[in-house]
Amino acid sequence: MAIKPEDALRAIAAARGDALCVPTMTTAPAWRTIAPNDLSVGCVGFMGGASSLGLGLALARPDRRVLVFDGDGSLLMQLGSLATVAGAAPRNLVHFLFKNGVYHTSGAQEIPGGGGVDFVQMAKGAGYRAASAIGELGELKRRLPSLLKEEGPIFVELHTGLAEATPMTAGMGTPFHQQVERLRGQLIAS
Fold it and tell me: Among 3.40.50.1110, 3.40.640.10, 3.40.50.970, 3.20.20.450, what is the CATH number of 5-183?
């Protein structure tokens, strides 16, 4: 049975400590509800940019753990980012991929290759330090403490169902430039 995205996000929120988070597309509405005032910047509106945004944060703030909440459809839009992240080798980055096999935000059309795309092998081939798949919430909860401490970049493919809301059904939230200004101010103050 697939993990509910919201359950995965709640588990991550409970274990993340002071990590900077980059939710994208279908993870963004739930994350805004689960962690409304955390240090995060939502990557909505530029599909495929979450891992690059997360990489920039990880390189700028090596003292903080950075968690990317990517979608399989989003990652396919910028697949080369796997090699870019691996090449930069940020020790503080964990790249969570919410794999549901569809472009959920735009109407749940199947992604190229559907559920058969092996993102774990792609991440390993690109040079991530570790890459694995998790299909059960209990396993995610058991492994989170070590995943959040291991030297990165780490890639974790979560086998999920569809989120309850998408940016299209929940509204877009705070504009990106305002999120960046807020995050910048919080990081300077911390």
Answer: 3.40.50.970
